[in-house]
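re: that chain from earlier
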Amino acid sequence: MSSDRRDTPGPGGRDPLDVDELRRVLLLEGSVWTGLEVSASTTSTNADVVAAVGAGAPEGLVVATEHQTAGRGRLDRRWETPPGAGLMVSVLLRPDGVALPQWTWLPLLTGLAVDLTARDCGVTSGLKWPNDVLVEGRKISGILLERADGPAGPAAVVGIGLNVSSTPDELPVPTATSLAIEGATTVDRGVVLQLLLGHLERLYRPWVASAGDPALLRRDYLEQSVTLGSRVRVELPDGSTLTGVAHDIDPLGRLVVDGRAISAGDVTHVRAVG
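^ sequence. v structure.
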């Protein structure tokens, strides 16, 4: 993957990521982030990080691209954006000391980091379980987490796609939006990446230090949730549908709907219960 992206014009006039500057401010002693690679184009940053895990890469590798040609989101949905219009990034995490069942909190942790990033950019957003970041019902990001195994043991590959400067006609569906459309104070992808990785690290470190205790993370997530208190319809992996009121997130990060804990499913908000 090429990293020489600083001095050439970005696709469609959008400035490329300044790799040298990002390395200077992100790869600090003691930081979670240990490496940064940026490509002009790739099929999937998650696939690139999975390959790096197999090659023994350390925790903290960050892989970004100017254009992702075969990105996927949760439930294997495609995530597409024009070159230079979005932030496409995957990171390698190894939460040592956290039992694998508690890794279910990583998607929620990531969604919260994206939500806080959008808010730092002046966009009022909220979280639809598990990790959809919404602005007035419109989706601004896609997140995909995968487990990968390598010589150093299991790792979490965290993939994030965030619409930054996309215009309405560049988005695939009317239910999508971008930071620019929502009037963000910045659409500089380098700034947005710094904010995002900062929030990821600030949420990740105490969670790992507590051996995966979700108490603080759960509290912060609940504050940003737009799902709790809503009547929802959940399409479950077995093809069945559950409709009810979402009233809690349990200690494993599962959505509790009318007393039933849901670990996976596609959630639609029907209406708020007031």
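The chain has two domains: 11-223, 228-272.
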